[in-house]
Amino acid sequence: MVSGQDNEITNTPCEVAEEKMKAEVSYMKAKHLHIVTMGCQMNVYDSEQMERLLAPMNYRPTADMDKADLILVNTCAIRKKAEHKVYSFLGRLARMKQRKPELIIGVGGCVAQQEGYRLVELSPHVDIVFGTFALKRLPALVRQVTEKRTRVVDVDNTATDEASYVKPSGPQGERATAFVTIMTGCDNFCTYCVVPYVRGRQTSRKPDAILQEIQHIVQNGVREVTLLGQNVNAYGLKNGHGCDFPKLLEAVNNIEGLRRIRFTTSHPKDLSDKLIGAFGRLDKLAPHIHLPVQSGSDRILRRMNRGYTRDCYLKKVEKLRKVRPSIALTSDIIAGFPGEETTDFEDTVKLISSVGFDNLFIFKYSDRKNVPASRFANKVSGALKGERFARLLNVQAKITLQKNLSLVGTVQEILVEGLSKKGDDQLTGHTPCNKIVNFVDRTALVGDLVPVKIVEAFSHSLLGCPISGLERHYDKNGGIMHAA
Ligand code: SAH
Ligand code: SF4
Ligand code: F3S
Description:
By secondary structure, the protein is an alpha/beta fold.
């Protein structure tokens, strides 16, 4: 309404109250949040944290990006390709924002931490840039953008503290497995790696907080947890919580209702005899370890600053297999690290063949901003990197298939995780050794542990058939069961 002199616009007290109420109602009205998660499991965990942090502001997760009022992109900077993926996705969001100007776009995670203000300069449609330390401050950032329609950047690297983690509350939905971050950051400074720069120094969470979180999710149906950190073996070593990683595992093993424990990633240099021994002692610890070796050449391992030799790695593998003969081993390899000669590469091929990994994640070396290896001489050409990458894939593909074929005829205990993406009403889950098994079972529910006979093996998964009524016994070492 128009009143008073000079055409000044004022509202009656009644209208003011009405407007205020409307604003509050629209603030409280459920809004839709869509999170796109790129990168490692730690980002998956952080994205769950984002959902929890924004729930009190009435943001409800939606799988439909077109419905979203707020889109958050949780990014990864580990290789050039991962970073490119972020920018090409942001291009897609720019077009979306043209159609829907009220949409709020936030970029978080490792690329956000690395690029900071550059990201808002490069991407005018991005409203929020929040780094890896800013999780807890996300609600305040969203509020700032909503209320003031400003653009905000928070790449402050104030250390993450316990209060930065939001405990899950209420039912966990239909899920049998969950990730729990037990430590953040990394102190190892491998010469090729960006993680210490974007995630900061190694910091361990307090054991009590971790145990409470696991107890809560287990009470809500989770049966398997994967403890996460860039180097979980170093858990507690510098924080003085009075609890090292084997001790934490033991406490997790005592949680009633929890059936399986996994962890990732283990650094070979910190894999202690005590931790290896845990594979023989702890019944819930799944027989699988991801132990990235990166290269089979001592010369390259030194240049990578990995802190172990090929021989030392092989001895640890031997010890693990002695303690838990059925243990599955997976690893990471970088092909074409600067200065990698043919002999270095052949050492890697030999190591792969002699260990016989259950699976390998192979990466072409990628220069990262500000890391020492980006300044190393003797870069391997793209073509040669490609050749070496293909050869490693080939060598490993045969080993993986062989390992999978050796399981045909055995009975495996599968934790039902949900419906298989393949459709056909198949359920999907993992063996204790972490292999994917798809099978049809009309009665099993998410969270059930089902004995399944493996009937067919493929490169990336196994096909199973549930057994029932047969006498079963467990192989204590591997958790593998045999039908009598
Ligand atoms: N903390 C884990 C690994 C985290 S990153 C560890 O120490 O093993 C996951 C994998 O990405 C690494 O194991 C490595 O194989 C690969 N990687 C890291 N930086 C890379 C780079 N610059 N180029 C190619 N691969 C890289
Ligand atoms: Fe990167 Fe090395 Fe730390 Fe792993 S241990 S996160 S590879 S610096
Ligand atoms: Fe990528 Fe960051 Fe994880 S760089 S691998 S998302 S810690």
